[in-house]
Amino acid sequence: MPRHMRWRRIAGFLTAFAIVFSIQMIWTSNNVQQPLPTRDPKLKKLLLVYQSNRSKKRQRVVYQLPGNDSQPLHHRIQPVMSTSRSNISVLEKPQGATSITDIFIAVKSSGKFHTTRLPLLLDTWIPLAKKSTFLITDVDDPELMSRFEPGHYQMSTCPQSHYRKGLVCKVSLAYDLFMLKQRRWFCIVDDDTYINIPNLVATLQKFDSTLDWYIGRPSLKYPIRVTINNLKESFWFHTGGAGYCISRALALKMSPHALGGKLRELADTIRVPDDVAVGYIINKKLGVDITRMLTFHSHLEGLWRISPHDLRNQVTLSYGEFETGPNHVISNVINLGKTIPTFPPPYDPTRLRSLHCYLFPGVTECEGMKVAIH
Ligand code: UDP
Ligand code: MN
């Protein structure tokens, strides 16, 4: 064989080897399993079953549902779950009006906020929704844990950061946890959010949880535009800072894209924050419209603009700061006006304790506080 032919053959062989090697690398990296973001044995079992099913299918046929496409999705999901012996709840037809125990409220938090943000929530709205509230956090804190119902304090192994990865990991875990429960509504809020519980219940009562609902407040006045796999996609999403709620029917439809940590994987792949990833699945992938609820508020808007007399009609409220210039910030809190009794600002800088006692003067948490009213 002439010399140049031999070299060409060797080069060809090396190229083929490199191609096979890269395909193998891509294949294995697709199948890398994320560490489980929880120590909860029940949830761990579900995620493990899910992950092992997925890797058996080599991740290409991700989460294939039984039955045929003409069947409603929720009818098809149930057998999948029972074959994997997990105890994901089935879709139940609501009987009677929605009550607080039909709602699953996930609060995402982080160790550094356990003493700064959570006391406000624990002294105000959480006692009105103790059986519904689940804390998703990242640090063991036995004292804090004792203030939640057993199993409602979810210590995750999510990164303790405000980065996309840490937050989406918590939302993903909250969603998986919801799927294990018999609840009609999945709501998720930040730990700087005040919820008017009776108003939340009354709002959700107006919607049928066996239909698709994605309720909240979009932070943008137009659909967000994101480049995903080199394609420009546009879709609506509700801002996480105002909290949002998803009906069980819709949560079940999301499962091929979200269950078992898939929400986290998706957000990591397309590089978007948790709330945007949820909007992408619901609005873009499933084609379900958002439902705007202007009684949900985040600190992205000027909270002082809500009229004091209208405060009692809101569902979620928050607090924060606005940077108005270099070294100049103004606090963004609700305005209680002149007629509502308030606590002194140093005791109640967010004004939400005062609001709570105005709304629920009879609750135990406000009895001690009344002393402070001036
Ligand atoms: N958060 C977190 N780790 C952090 C910072 C924030 O888990 O390092 C959580 C925080 O507990 C809250 C949410 O992320 O529930 C949003 O954070 P924050 O309210 O500080 O910021 P925002 O996005 O509302 O401006
Ligand atoms: Mn916030």
Protein model, in words:
By secondary structure, the protein is of the alpha/beta class. The chain has three domains: 68 residues, no CATH class; 191 residues, Alpha-Beta Complex (Spore Coat Polysaccharide Biosynthesis Protein SpsA, Chain A); 64 residues, no CATH class. 37% of the residues lie in helices and 15% in strands. The protein is built from twelve helices and 13 strands. The strands form four sheets. Strands 3-2-1-4-9-6-10 form a seven-stranded mixed sheet. Helix 6 packs antiparallel against helix 9 and helix 8 packs across helix 9. It is elongated. The termini are far apart. It binds uridine-5'-diphosphate and manganese (II) ion. The site of uridine-5'-diphosphate has 13 residues, from helix 6.
